[in-house]
């Protein structure tokens, strides 16, 4: 979506060397202020003007589960112990984001 690409560019969320593989906007109004982004180099979570990420090459483990009303929960653990949690609401293709993440991680192993 155009709004998402504009928000990503305005907030410098993705490096020039990266391509976006998957994107999930967690906001109800779809303004990009809370989003999970998967690129060719990193998995990123942006919320409240704060951005956290783990480089794909530094991922130690990825766990996925579904929780009733919450939806898909994806937990990423970095080799240095850093953790990233992504919640994708029901009916928002959380399984697709998870599968893309697994594929991207496998590609850099």
Reported for the largest beta sheet, the result is: 4 strands, antiparallel
Strand content: 35-45%
Could you tell me the mean pLDDT?
A: 96
Classification by helices and strands:
alpha+beta
Tell how many strands the DSSP assignment holds.
7
Number of helices: 2
Which quaternary structure do these chains form? single chain
Biggest β-sheet: strands ordered side by side in the sheet: 1-2-3-4
* Whole-angstrom Rg: 13 Å
Query: Which regions are unreliable across 5 or more consecutive residues at pLDDT < 50?
Result: none
The coarse overall form would be: globular
SSE pattern, N- to C-terminal: HEEEEEEEH
Helix content: 10-25%
The N- to C-terminal Cα distance equals 30 Å
How are the SSEs placed, and which strands pair?
Elements: H1 2-10, E1 20-25, E2 34-39, E3 42-47, E4 50-55, E5 59-67, E6 71-78, E7 83-88, H2 94-108
Antiparallel strand pairs: 1-2, 2-3, 3-4, 5-6, 6-7
Short description:
By secondary structure, the protein is an alpha+beta fold. The chain has helices spanning 2-10, 94-108; strands at residues 20-25, 34-39, 42-47, 50-55, 59-67, 71-78, 83-88.
Describe the structure.
With 109 residues, this protein is an alpha+beta fold. It is 22% helix and 43% strand. It is globular, with a radius of gyration of 13 Å. The chain has helices spanning 2-10, 94-108; strands at residues 20-25, 34-39, 42-47, 50-55, 59-67, 71-78, 83-88. The model has no long low-confidence stretch (mean pLDDT 96). It contains two helices and seven strands; from the N terminus they run H-E-E-E-E-E-E-E-H. The strands form two sheets. Strands 1-2-3-4 form a four-stranded antiparallel sheet, with helices on one face. The protein has a three-stranded antiparallel sheet with strand order 5-6-7, covered by helices on one side.
């Amino acid at each position: 979506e155009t709004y998402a690409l504009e928000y990503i560019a305005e907030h410098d969320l993705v490096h020039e060397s990266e391509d976006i593989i998957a994107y999930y906007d967690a906001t109800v109004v779809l303004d990009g202020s809370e989003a999970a982004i998967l690129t060719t180099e990193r998995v990123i979570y942006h919320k409240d003007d704060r951005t956290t990420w783990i480089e794909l090459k530094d991922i130690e483990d990825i766990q996925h589960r579904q929780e009733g009303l919450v939806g898909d929960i994806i937990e990423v653990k970095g080799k240095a112990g850093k953790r990233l949690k992504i919640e994708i609401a029901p009916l928002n293709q959380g399984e697709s984001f998870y599968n893309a993440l697994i594929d991207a991680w496998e590609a850099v192993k």
